[in-house]
Sequence to fold (195 residues):
Amino acid sequence: MRYAAAGYKVIAITDHVDYSNIKSTVKAILEFVQNWPKNSQIKVLAGIELTHLPLEQFKPLAKYARSQGIKVIVAHGETLVEPVIKGTNRAALEADIDILAHPGLLSEEEAKLAKQKNIFLEITSRKGHCDTNGHVAERALKCGAKLIINNDSHTPEDIISPEELRETGVKSGLSQKEIDKIYQDVGEFLKGKGA
Fold:
């Protein structure tokens, strides 16, 4: 409800998963969403974030999550602030994901693959991960890939207002028109996911 109080209308719960916890986490998230009040002021979507995986595990874990009813699949990208296996962006983009989070210094080829597969590239307000937002925005715009602006919250202190989130886009070098287009694209995506 903290997100509702901050002014959000839709969120996705995307806990970090790998082979050690995907079954229990998917089950718990689906149960949570199924029991979320239908008349709540905020819509909650079931999601997961595939995080720090061996490259060959992205496809089977994404496939498993989809088969269980997960609506939003995020993959943890090659951020510069954590040790991440080189090739993670590409492996994630080749899997059935919706969002490549904090993709770091993604290549033009990776941005083109995101466009081809209709995968969103994340612009984030999260400390450290946001250091490459301008690069990600530039690559996405050049290739025509879709962007999503996200706060990637892990604690209540990470929750910022929708207005502050839009400002993250501005700080990334995006115009108001480009930000409006991002929100339009994300709105269509969310409708397709049942929001």
In short: Residues 2-192 form a domain with the TIM Barrel fold (CATH 3.20.20.140).
